Inverse folding.
């Protein structure tokens, strides 16, 4: 299916945009979290069974997870879910809203980071959720320019059979995309299925996030290592997008598999 969406010619316009981790944490404090979808993502719902391929016991990764309820969809089926998120507020709200009790421990590999694990009386559920909180002291961020996922690799989170990337690649600062893609690729296990949602809108009208990631850039980031198939292109224009000044807004769902 194709809606014939044209690539925007001025894709470079967002390339120097930078949000710091503080900016993201502020969004959670000031409740600018319209990205959160209370019903979960409809395209994931639609493709859920084909994404799982009837397999059990998968390891599923949610980069930049927020409080995405889709994490629970996988855990409820017995899969192991690992999320990474910078906002402790988001993580705590996720567990509270999903009625899950949890433990928290410091992550030894990364100073200041924590691991939240679900704990219930049901053994099967134990450790099926693991959310890593990245937490850096501001001095650390400035000194090493560590506003990014580059640290995930140090956390030993293992490899994954599935990745659900919605609001993640498109939330990463444009200048960090290469590094983000390298890390994601390093986390994939043989036979992986990586579902990725990107957006198409006029980037001269809205500064992002979410950022516009053109198809050509996607190919550059993942095309040499992965087969890329566009499963869906849907019109996702809502009132809140119109207030940004955009008059079209499409979501594209890509499935990336091993080449
Ligand atoms: N994937 C989620 C959230 C999307 S918004 C969803 O679909 O609802 C992006 C999220 O990434 C925010 O919750 C923000 O706090 C978090 N974030 C941004 N940069 C991050 C980083 N470098 N490391 C971890 N989390 C980050």
């Amino acid at each position: 299916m194709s809606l014939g969406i044209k690539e925007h010619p001025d894709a470079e316009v967002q390339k120097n945009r930078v949000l710091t981790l503080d900016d993201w944490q502020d969004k959670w404090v000031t409740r600018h979290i319209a990205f959160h979808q209370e019903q979960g993502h409809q395209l994931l719902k639609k493709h859920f069974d084909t994404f799982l391929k009837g397999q059990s016991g998968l390891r599923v990764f949610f980069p930049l997870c927020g409080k995405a309820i889709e994490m629970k969809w996988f855990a409820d089926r017995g899969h192991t879910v690992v999320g990474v998120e910078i906002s402790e507020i988001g993580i705590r709200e996720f567990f509270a809203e999903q009625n899950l009790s949890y433990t928290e421990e410091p992550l030894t590999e990364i100073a200041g980071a924590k691991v939240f694990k679900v704990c219930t009386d049901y053994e099967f559920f134990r450790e099926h959720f693991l959310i890593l909180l990245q937490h850096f002291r501001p001095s650390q961020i400035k000194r090493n320019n560590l506003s990014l996922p580059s640290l995930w690799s140090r956390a030993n989170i293992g490899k994954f059979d599935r990745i659900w990337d919605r609001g993640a690649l498109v939330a990463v600062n444009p200048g960090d995309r290469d590094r983000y893609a390298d890390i994601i690729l390093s986390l994939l296990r043989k036979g992986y299925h990586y579902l990725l949602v990107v957006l198409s809108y006029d980037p001269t009208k809205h500064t992002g996030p979410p950022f516009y990631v053109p198809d050509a850039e996607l190919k550059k980031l993942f095309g040499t290592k992965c087969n890329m198939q566009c499963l869906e292109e849907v019109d996702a224009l809502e009132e809140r997008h119109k207030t940004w000044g955009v008059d079209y807004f499409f979501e594209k769902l890509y499935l990336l598999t091993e080449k």
User: Anything to note?
Assistant: The longest strand covers residues 188-200. The two ends are 23 Å apart (CA to CA). Strands lie at 59-62, 80-85, 102-106, 114-118, 129-133, 160-165, 188-200, 226-235, 250-258. The domain at 21-138+145-258 is CATH 3.40.50.150 (Rossmann fold).
